[in-house]
Amino acid sequence: MRWLPFPITLALAAPLLACACGQSGAPGFTFTGDDSGVVDSDGSGSLIIPSGNDGGLLIPGNGGPLPVPGGEITAAGGPSIVVNGQPKAVQLTATVNGAPVTGTWTTSDPAIGSVGSDGTFHANGLAGGTVDVGLVVGNRQIKITLTVDVDITDNPAMLPAADQTALKAGGPADPNFKFLYPFDGTVFPRGLQAPVLQFGDGKTVAGTADGVYLKLTTTHFSYQQFGLGGTPVRVVIPDPVWKGATVSAGAKDAITALVIKRTGAIISGPVTENWRVAVGSLKGFIYYSTYKSPLLPNDPATNTGGGILRIRPGSSAEVVRRGCVVCHSVSANGSVLSAAFGPDLSNPTSSDAVNLTVAAPTPTRRSPPSPGQQFAFAALTPDGALALTNGNPGLGPPDLPHGFQGMYPSSLVNTATGAAVGSPSLAQLVHTAQTPAFSPDGKRVVFINGDMAPATRPLSLMDFDGTSVFSNLRVLRNETEMTTNASNASVGWTPTPAPPAVPTTFPPPGPARPKTIAWPSFTPDGSGIIYHLGDSFDSSGFNLNGGNAESPPQYAELRLIELDGTVKNLNALNGRDASGASILPYGEAVDNNMNYEPNMMPLPVGGYYWVVFTSRRAYGNTVAPGRAATAQPFDVPAQDPWGSNAGPSPRKKLWVAAIDLNHADAANLDPSHPPFYLSGQELESANMRGFAALAPCVADGATCESGSDCCGGFCRQSGNDSSGAPILKCVLPPVNMCSNVDEPCKTPADCCDPNDLCIGGRCAVQRPPR
Predict the structure, then answer these.
(1) Distance, CA of 686 to CA of 227 (rounded, Å)
(2) What backbone torsions phi and psi does residue 131 show, to the nearest 5 degrees?
(3) Alpha-carbon distance 736 to 233, whole Å?
(4) Are 176 and 236 in contact (CB under 8 A)?
(5) What is the Cα–Cα distance from 548 to 554, expressed in whole angstroms?
(6) CA distance 392 to 468
(7) Are strands 254-263 and 187-190 parallel, antiparallel or unpaired?
(8) Which of 341, 370, 401, 584 could be joined to 575 by an S-S link, Cβ 3.0–4.6 Å?
(9) Which percentage of the chain shows pLDDT scores above 70?
């Protein structure tokens, strides 16, 4: 064991095709390898021969080279290696019948360590596990299995030894000391910033500690930290350490966090949580609407602020479009964004479609300006070429989202010209397809049939031929769950007492009516649909009196429906146990029934599907009851979680949850998992309507992380950089070779790993056991 001083300066190899080689993850922290599984072009450095379910390249019909008779590799100090946060070099020696031999060195997992042409194995110091290192001699191989264990102790608070001993011993349980964030059982993908561990009583953000002990463990990995905790109580895991833990944890492994705190002379805890890791990194970008963001300052002349931002998971937000840009949609391939413009509250004033790029967030115009409702909440085909416009019945909220007025029929539109595409079949089947969305293959569209409102608003499906013909209209669900709060979707209501004080009462309940189904989104396999079920289409009521009068509440949760009509409640995502009782730290009245506007990420990652959604639940002790006011105009903490028209509540944020691939199994009653807060959002802003899309693809010869980045679909190792790290580039489809994870397939037989699945036309790893 060794004490780890700050700042941490170390190198960690990239996980499976998840990080570009040489890319900086933190000051002094660089990724030095990947799992592409392709032979170095010059034969030097590490050749990667994958093993297991990691999506690397396997030799079709062969488990790898045969062994060299009499061959042996020995490691200086033995095959068990202990690292403490710093890189470690171990000399390997290969012999055949006792005589030295040369060849090409290989490694099965460069995320743990790489091997140079001189036979030196370089453990990166943070990632633990077992790794097969071999020497290819002719058409045969000599192999050794190395075990790397990480054991790090860190004392950023400089606590003396006696305090450390007392903290590690723990104390009695304290009901005012519990995890507020993350949630127990959360599944985290790789490649994100470390979650901030947050603690308290589940009533307010109050709480203090002058000493904390964290022990973070998983297979072949242990990290201990002695910190101060602070007010409120938080524990910050260094990003490099978190990356090491998530790379060390396999699909079947738990990461366990044990935390003990000291306040004065009183030691409390431990409190413990377990999390799982998806063996892969989220792809592309998440685009979302924001209000009152520091990145988009309020314009005093118009009292408007906000726009469209995007986050590449693991990075911070960047501006895509400025101003009152609303009602956006993004194509699944990430090439086209459509949106409308305000600030007219009765209807958008104009709309358009723009082209997106990877290199810069600023888009280029794709279509001329169009009428305000044309591209507002439109469904884009997966390639972004066509849009099915969002139709609106001639009604008001809750029968349509606020911000619209009057009848508007659905139509098919060319996004490059803004011109209508003739579709007699669409007009024959439905006039107002509300909040529509295309399936991942573009062959179906799901929507709420506004033609039947207000008597009923069924979740409906149609087939689509990809050009202009719709057919086979059918109802998937008519909602029977009732609400009495729908009438508050849009009201002229002055709270008492006058703002900015918290109102003493909300408007009284209205007549019972079926809840609103809205914002449907297909799972990547096209066999399930996640949707919002709530009081209305909106995540808060709209107060027609405007200004800083508090907005009335609108409640919702997310559901998943299979194509046979089976509905699953997604209790874990919604913050409930199997019985439906709240498990969120602030309880039912403060945290629950506030999940809205789901959107599925277009590809599975690490054996899971992923949904991004809006939630007004508390974020630990950071954006929670008792918080201080931000510097944003009209921010009134007493109005949380609803805020006002002028001051949207910063409780409105984006969250992400894992969904099991086998969501359709009858035995899987809840295929969801507790969500995580999407890091990179600005804490002061109110965010909504996250759209997950791939990054716009790049041409052959461009650098890539996986096949999903490439227009041709294939990303392979082309060589090594000066440090020996693999260089990945988009290539032409390899001839007579299998496909890695994220590369094209027609059946699972096309995938290199015989255990892989073919989902949405790309190879994907199977669901790990729960």
Answers:
(1) 31
(2) -140, 135
(3) 57
(4) no
(5) 17
(6) 21
(7) unpaired
(8) 584
(9) 87
